[in-house]
């Protein structure tokens, strides 16, 4: 506030100061509002023929690109994206890690949206509300993800919000994932017949087996690393260089330095790399983890003043397996004093002092149901109905989903079943979710609409006594958590985002064959403070056809 001692001699001077203060205040408001901009896109989805692993195959392109266009946003940007489907099948994109605050209408999964029919379009409208970080998008329908249609989604900070590291001299997005040479329709037929998929045929970096990244000696660059694969964890490293980890899926973390990083399916991590080595080219390496067959993909980090190609042996992956990976994961800690997308420090929310209102233990398994392979959660295998759950909720259409089919604790006495599983919760609940993995395979779980605190990892069976091992001070928040074989992972979630939210395996075979469910985060109070109205352009399908979609 400005105070003036008013005199005739000073009156004009004081008035000038007051006017200047008003103008500066208005300019500050305009600056902040101006950064909440609208960005408009038209994306056309088509098939194309490329040879990612050396032999021609059909892939899914967006605007002719594979991977799809990179979506670069600033915190609170509003996205208006017209998706035109030129495929021969219905299609949806989901925005992996974007919370869709109050807006599960735009989440882009079959529980919230009708797919876009061939030769038609749908316009997504969403905001990157209070988020920063490295994310991705990909197709959620069928096995389209196995054919492409994925891309990077980066949310940069607003100019008025600092980041806890020097601004890098540039950044690079690396989309790394396993890849099949087999057409996605043939892969789908395999799963529909009740069989598991074979191991993938290779590993790609940005849709290629080989690519090059260019930088200047002495400068520091940001590398945004995402595992966009179908089923396989990867390890990432750069020959002769260290990786300073600064952000994971929207969380600024304590900045430790690593030689290699494990990145599991559906996860993203952001590192700073300083080009401080002699001028030459160096290998960027990604390799599969925890698999009998090891695939390796390489790229080249090219110094602009280099006169020598990359040479020498590739940097080695970690010798040790699961216990090494758990140990690394436990070093990821929230930076309590850093801002995220908002001015207040991340650590101002004391999650560890809140008593959960509910505990849900989810146990995954592979089962035979009616003679076919299905994946289950607490012995229930999810099936997608013709009507999205969100529309069934809004229009009060009965019989679409079941809130009693999946129990909150697993039991071997529960009969195997197939159902459209929904777990009821209340808006502002604070819940504990334990992922129990009694299989001898890695698992990766993702929750739409939220990030969550990953408070504990362990091996064996989870019991309430394991809470004594939880990190209740500086666990990082993220949207996708790995679960190690014959082990468990615990998360805490603050359910402050009303909607119908998909909790799924990030391993797409398992998701496709039933390892998923939905959280219904609900309050009886209908208010725009809690959730936006149904979009005017909402697509209707199944039993929602014919209903009036006016808000």
Automatic annotation (TrEMBL):
Coiled coil: none annotated. InterPro entries: Cu-oxidase-like_N, Cu-oxidase_2nd, Cu-oxidase_C, Cu-oxidase_fam, Cupredoxin, CuRO_1_AAO-like. One of its GO terms (molecular function) is oxidoreductase activity. It holds the Pfam family Cu-oxidase_2. Gene3D superfamilies: Cupredoxins - blue copper proteins. The keyword Signal applies. Residues 1-34 form the signal peptide. Keywords: Glycoprotein, Signal. SUPFAM superfamilies: Cupredoxins (SSF49503). Residues 45-158, 171-306, 387-525 form the Plastocyanin-like domain. Belongs to the multicopper oxidase family. This is L-ascorbate oxidase. It comes from Vigna angularis var. angularis.
């Amino acid at each position: 506030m400005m105070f003036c001692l008013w005199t005739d001699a000073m009156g004009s001077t004081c008035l000038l100061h007051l006017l200047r203060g008003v103008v500066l205040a208005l300019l500050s408001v305009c600056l902040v509002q101006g950064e909440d901009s609208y960005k408009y896109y038209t994306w056309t989805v088509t098939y194309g023929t490329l040879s990612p692993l050396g032999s021609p195959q059909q892939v899914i392109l967006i605007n002719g690109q594979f991977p799809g266009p990179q979506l670069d946003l600033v915190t609170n940007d509003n996205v208006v994206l017209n998706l035109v489907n030129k495929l021969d099948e219905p299609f949806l994109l989901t925005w992996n890690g974007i919370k869709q605050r109050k807006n599960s209408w735009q989440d882009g999964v079959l529980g919230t949206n009708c797919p876009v029919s061939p030769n038609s379009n749908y316009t997504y409208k969403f905001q990157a509300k209070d988020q920063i970080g490295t994310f991705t998008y990909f197709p959620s329908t069928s096995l389209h993800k196995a054919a492409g249609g994925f891309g990077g989604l980066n949310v940069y900070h607003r100019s008025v919000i600092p980041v806890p590291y020097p601004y890098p001299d540039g950044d690079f997005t690396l989309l790394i994932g396993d890849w099949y040479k087999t057409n996605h329709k043939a892969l789908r037929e395999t799963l529909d017949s009740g069989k598991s998929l074979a191991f993938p045929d290779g590993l790609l970096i940005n849709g290629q087996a080989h690519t090059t990244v260019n930088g200047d000696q002495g400068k520091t660059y940001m590398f945004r690393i995402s595992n966009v694969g179908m089923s396989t964890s990867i390890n990432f490293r750069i020959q002769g260089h260290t990786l300073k980890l600064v952000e994971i899926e929207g969380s600024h973390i304590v900045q430790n330095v690593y030689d290699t990083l494990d990145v599991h399916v559906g996860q993203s991590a952001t590192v700073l790399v300083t080009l401080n080595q002699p001028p030459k080219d160096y290998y960027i390496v990604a390799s599969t983890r925890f698999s009998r067959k090891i695939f390796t993909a390489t790229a080249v980090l090219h110094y602009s003043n280099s006169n020598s190609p990359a040479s020498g042996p590739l940097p080695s992956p970690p010798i040790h397996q699961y216990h090494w990976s758990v140990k690394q994961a436990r070093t990821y800690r929230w930076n309590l004093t850093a801002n995220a997308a908002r001015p207040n420090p991340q650590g101002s929310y004391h999650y560890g002092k809140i008593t959960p209102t509910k505990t849900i233990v989810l146990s995954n398994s592979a089962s035979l149901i009616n003679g076919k392979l299905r994946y289950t959660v607490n012995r229930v295998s999810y099936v997608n109905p013709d009507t999205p759950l969100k529309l069934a909720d809004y229009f009060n259409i009965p019989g679409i989903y079941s809130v009693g089919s999946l129990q909150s604790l697993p039991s071997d006495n529960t009969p195997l079943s197939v159902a459209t599983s929904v777990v009821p919760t209340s808006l502002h609940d604070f819940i504990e979710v334990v992922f129990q993995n009694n299989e001898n395979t890695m698992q990766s779980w993702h929750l739409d609409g939220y990030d969550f605190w990953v408070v504990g990892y362990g091996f064996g069976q989870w019991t309430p006594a394991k809470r004594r091992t939880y990190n209740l001070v500086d666990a990082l928040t993220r949207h996708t958590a790995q679960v190690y074989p014959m082990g468990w992972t615990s998360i805490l979630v603050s359910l402050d985002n009303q909607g119908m939210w998909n909790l799924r395996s990030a391993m797409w075979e398992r998701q496709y064959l039933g390892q998923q469910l939905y959280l219904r985060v609900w309050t009886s109070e209908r208010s725009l403070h809690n959730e936006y109205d149904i979009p005017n352009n909402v697509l209707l399908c199944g039993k929602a056809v014919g209903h009036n979609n006016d808000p």
